[in-house]
Design brief:
The chain contains eleven helices and eight strands. The chain has 269 residues and is an alpha/beta fold. It has one domain: UDP-N-acetylmuramoyl-L-alanine:D-glutamate ligase. Helix 1 packs across helix 9, helix 2 packs parallel to helix 10 and helix 8 crosses helix 9.
Length: 269
Amino acid sequence: MTRTHIDIVHSSGALLSKLRAEGPLVQCLTNTVTTNLVANAVLAVGGSPAMVDIPEEAGSLARSAGAVLINMGTPSAEQREAMVEAAKGASESATPWVLDPVGIGALPVRTALARELAAMKPTIVRGNASEIRALAGAGAGARGVDATDPVDDARDAAIEIARSCGVVVAVSGEVDLITDGTTVVRIANGTKLFTRITGAGCALGGVIAAFAAISDDQLEATVAACLIYAVVGEQAAEFAGQPGSFAVALLDALDSIDMAMLRERARLS
């Protein structure tokens, strides 16, 4: 992956153009509270969402999809079975897949499931700082789905997971952190309104999966997805100062983002 600010912006814009041209199928096993936002975010950025999350279907679709998102926000017994099935199908067919270990640490069922899924070699792990620390065994986890740790406190845990599991890790927060265990990229774009709507992180997981579907360099894909999502959130917040209108403006901004906007706004280190 190229390292300079300009190169990252250019590669992110090129991947966005490729995503919109190819329209990959993105299978989403996700939080029942946020299914609509996740599907619309994938559509807005250029992918084709398939919300297939039941046993006997999840695994077969994972084998043929462009990428898979497994988000553990509301893991019912049936959905837990489908998640394991989808992870196996994706791994067997080399389909890139994203694990979003929502709310792990204090909640035992999902914590055990997250560790089982992490052992099945996801391509990318995305979570807030508390979730990433809990997955690494370094913290007690989030307060519900909300982080209780700052992003930099999860840096070592993210690098450890990336190295031990061979994955890219994205830690969401005031300044996002993405690492493959060697390179660490920080993105300072974004808005506090992400924390005022349900599903902002879930939707980011879907966007990351869409980019993963069209790239052979998963660090580059994850950085592109996180950068674009943070920039459009920042832009949407300027048009919509409150949560309800922000959710709509976020989708509009995802649909309209282009290279010029990335060049103007990207804040990377």
